[in-house]
Design goal:
The complex is a heterodimer of chains A (236) and B (198).
Chain A: H1 2-5, H2 9-13, H3 23-42, H4 53-59, H5 63-87, H6 93-115, H7 122-126, H8 129-143, H9 151-181, E1 183-184, E2 187-188, H10 201-221, H11 223-235
Antiparallel strand pairs in A: 1-2
Helix pairs in contact in A: 3-9, 3-11, 4-8, 4-10, 5-6, 5-8, 5-9, 6-8
Chain B: H1 2-12, H2 17-21, H3 25-31, H4 36-60, H5 70-99, H6 101-115, H7 118-129, H8 134-163, H9 174-192
Classes of the chains: A mainly alpha (236), B mainly alpha (198).
């Protein structure tokens, strides 16, 4: 209803191309979808609030580890965040956190099965940061907007945010692999100049800081993103 | 006692969970801007969960020693530790909600985030992956807590000073804080000692 308020009057009454679907609802859905897709960057768990940061800083040092962490986050976090958010409507906050923890623990089994074919030494590379994702998802859930929302949009937001995480994790992994080892996805690129320190966590902090600054610069300067922010504010 | 102190000092400085492993980055950012009371409460509960989980998991981990597969070390063991953490958390919340209901309702979110964060779980996983004795494990966990508090003080003071400085608009907020932590982390790595290739 709140979203309808910001729409022009004609949009509330007209039908969409003569069909039974109301034009207002089509506009509302398209606006809301734009907001959700915008969340890929603006509500990205890494880039807003530093959520799920530790695996990215310490474990994502290659393209493959970036892919592995992304798969783990997608499989573990999406169900646990959605279920803990659903349960928070009917149970106290601490109970929903426990439910989310148990769902995460359960989902770590299929995540392990999905990641292990990537590389034989993938778990040696990511180490303790794979199980840590089980609890990192709660950080995302806590910072998630806990206002009463339509379930489908809640799911869309979570999926978009996690996909945004995957995009940046793979980007960071690729940059670090090229700079630290002179390879990409394990293949030599013929680069002689290598900086082994790039694989250390301190460079992870610095690199994420710079990427975040670039995203903020784009967000502040581009007209498209300005309009997107305006639409997001309208919907919220 | 000597073992306890060595493990503690090592965890505070050379193996600081935030600066050397990036663990606890999310809670640091979420509580560094809050009041001293909330920060102290968060750190107190985090220490309680971390120490009790380390102690209980130390006694449970020998039961899982026969399972030497990658699945057991990366999935099964963490799930068991997570279940133990969940039980400790549930008992704590139940007792607090019954005995100190006002206090609990005020601080429910702080207590929950003090329990379910990567610093607590990561410390326990690191401690139990090393061939430590019981006292060493407790020393390492205590050191991790002290190291986290030290990191929190450094980061919140740094953020306060950065806010007063002329930082470019794009770097304001999280980016400059991350770069600041990265530079301190670099200094900590310098303490550990790295040699340049000849």
């Amino acid at each position: 209803m709140q979203e309808n308020r910001n729409l022009p009057n004609d949009a509330k009454t007209d039908t969409f191309f003569g069909s039974r679907i109301n034009r207002a609802s089509v506009l509302r859905i398209s606006r809301r979808l734009t907001v959700s897709v915008g969340n890929l960057f603006f509500k990205n768990p890494i880039l807003v609030g530093g959520i799920i940061l530790s695996p990215v800083i310490s474990a994502v040092t290659t393209f493959r580890s970036g892919v592995a962490i992304s798969i783990a986050v997608i499989i573990i976090c999406i169900p646990s965040i959605i279920i803990s958010e659903l349960s928070s409507k009917y149970a106290p906050f601490w109970v929903s956190a426990i439910i989310g923890a148990l769902v995460s623990a359960l989902m770590s089994v299929p995540a392990y099965k999905m990641i292990s074919p990537l590389s034989p030494d993938i778990f040696d590379n990511i180490g303790i940061y794979f199980p840590i994702i089980m609890l990192s998802s709660f950080s995302s859930a806590f910072t998630h907007n806990r206002k009463r929302r339509i379930f489908i949009w809640s799911v869309t937001d979570v999926v978009c945010a996690v996909c945004g995480f995957a995009f940046f994790a793979i980007l960071i992994g690729s940059i670090r692999e090229i700079l630290a080892y002179g390879t990409f996805n394990g293949k030599l690129l013929g680069i002689e100049f290598k900086m082994s320190g790039v694989a250390m966590p301190f460079f992870g902090f610095i690199l994420v800081g710079f990427i975040l600054a670039i995203v903020q610069k784009i967000k502040n300067s581009t007209v498209f993103f300005k309009n997107l922010i305006k639409r997001r504010k309208e919907v919220q | 006692m000597k073992e306890f102190l060595i493990a503690l000092l090592s965890a505070v400085t050379l193996q600081n969970i935030l600066f050397t492993r990036g663990l606890g980055a999310n809670p640091i950012f979420s509580i560094s801007r809050r009041s001293y009371k909330t920060s102290a409460l968060f750190c107190g509960f985090m220490a309680y969960f971390m120490l009790s989980l380390t102690a209980l998991s130390f006694w449970v981990s020998p039961l899982l020693e026969n399972l030497h597969t990658a699945f057991s070390s990366y999935v099964l063991r963490p799930i068991v530790y997570l279940l133990i953490l969940t039980i400790i958390f549930a008992v704590t919340c139940f007792v607090l909600s019954k005995l100190f209901s006002d206090f609990f309702s005020e601080n429910e979110k702080t207590i929950t985030s003090a329990c379910f964060n990567c610093a607590v779980f990561g410390t326990v996983l690191l401690t139990l992956s090393k061939p430590y004795s019981f006292m060493q494990s407790l020393g390492y966990a205590s050191g991790a807590c002290i190291g986290f508090i030290l990191a929190l003080i450094i980061v919140s003071e740094g953020q306060r000073r950065i806010e007063l400085s002329p930082v470019p608009k794009s770097f304001k907020g999280l980016p400059v804080s991350l770069i600041y932590i990265g530079l301190i982390s670099l200094a900590v790595y310098g303490l550990v000692g790295h040699q340049l290739p000849a």
